[in-house]
Design a protein that fits this description.
Number of helices: 8
Largest sheet: 6 strands, antiparallel
Order of helices and strands: HHHEEHEEEHHHEEEH
Oligomer: single chain
Strand order of the largest sheet: 5-4-3-8-7-6
C-alpha cells in the first residue's frame, strides 16, 4: 500500500470527524467561511465534506442564509447502535430457554451493510455446533435463515442493490443463486412467518429462524435454531414450531411490538 495515500486518507477522515463534532456542538447554523476559520481548514475542503454530508442527509442548509447545520440523522444512528447493544440483553433469557429446551445452538443476528452479523450465540453443553456462527461473525443474507427474514424488509430496488454489491455466491448444491428464486423464497418466508436454511450455507447444517420486531413494526433482527441436518429434521421443526413462534411473539412484545401476527410476516 502506498503510505502517502494511506496517510492522506487518514487525514481526510480525521478532518471529516472534526467537522461533524464541531457542528454537533453549535447552537445555530454557520456560514462556510466561519466553519473553515474555526477548524483552520481550506474552504474548498470543508465545502466538499459538507456536500457529501448533505447528500447523505447528515447536514442541511437554511434556505435563506445557506448556513449549515447538523440534522438529527446522527441521533437516529446513535439510537440504532444503542438499540442493538440492548437487544442481546433483552433476548438472552428467552434464547437461553429455547436452547435448553431444544438442545441446539441458538443465534441472534442483525442486518449490517447487506450481511448477517451475529450478536449473540448460545451453545448447549455437549452439543457444540460445528457451524461458524460466533458473535461478531458475518454470513450472507441469501442463504441463511435469519438472512431471509431480514430480506423481507427489502424493497425490490434494495434487493437489486444487495445482489449488485454482494452477489449470490454458491456455498452448497442447495444455495439459491438467482434473483427469481430468492424472491420466491422471500415471499414464502413472509407467508409462513419463519425462514428455513436447508443446508444452503453449510453442508450438513439446517436452521429455522424467526423474526424479532420492535415498536416500529419492522423486523430488526432474527433468532435461529441451528444444528445438524440429522437432528433438525422436518419433524423436529414441526414439533417445536408453536413453541418457537410463541417465543418470537414474546421477545417482539418486549421490544414494543404489539400486533405480531404469528401466521405471517408484515
Amino acid at each position: 500500500m502506498n503510505t502517502t495515500t494511506h496517510s492522506s486518507s487518514n487525514q481526510s477522515s480525521e478532518k471529516l470527524i472534526r467537522l461533524i463534532e464541531f457542528l454537533a456542538i453549535q447552537d445555530e447554523p454557520l456560514r462556510l467561511i466561519d466553519i473553515s476559520k474555526a477548524l483552520s481548514m481550506n474552504s474548498s475542503t470543508v465545502f466538499r465534506f459538507l456536500t457529501t454530508l448533505m447528500n447523505l442527509n447528515y447536514v442541511a442548509q437554511e434556505p435563506d442564509s445557506s448556513k449549515y447545520y447538523l440534522t438529527y440523522k446522527l441521533c437516529a444512528l446513535g439510537q440504532q447502535v444503542k438499540h442493538h447493544q440492548q437487544l442481546p440483553k433483552t433476548a438472552r433469557p428467552i434464547l437461553r430457554e429455547l436452547a435448553k429446551k431444544v438442545g441446539e445452538t441458538v443465534c441472534l443476528a442483525i442486518d449490517d451493510n447487506y450481511q448477517v452479523v451475529y450478536i449473540d450465540v448460545i451453545e448447549v453443553p455437549g452439543q457444540i455446533s460445528r457451524t461458524m456462527k460466533r458473535i461478531g461473525n458475518i454470513a450472507p443474507l441469501h442463504c441463511t435463515g435469519i438472512g431471509k427474514l431480514l430480506l423481507t424488509n427489502y424493497s425490490n430496488a434494495q434487493l437489486d442493490e444487495m445482489i449488485a454489491r454482494m452477489g449470490l455466491p454458491r456455498f452448497t448444491d442447495k444455495t439459491i443463486t438467482t434473483k427469481d428464486r430468492l424472491s420466491e423464497e422471500i415471499r414464502e418466508t413472509k407467508m409462513r412467518g419463519y425462514a428455513l436454511d436447508d443446508e444452503e450455507c453449510e453442508p450438513g447444517t439446517r436452521c429455522i429462524a424467526f423474526p424479532v420486531y420492535d415498536y416500529t413494526n419492522k423486523i430488526i433482527a432474527g433468532f435461529s435454531v441451528t444444528g445438524s441436518a440429522l437432528r433438525l429434521t422436518d419433524e423436529f421443526f414441526q414439533a417445536n414450531l408453536p413453541y418457537m413462534t410463541q417465543l418470537a411473539v414474546q421477545l417482539s412484545n418486549q421490544l414494543g411490538y404489539q400486533n405480531l401476527n404469528a401466521a405471517a410476516l408484515d
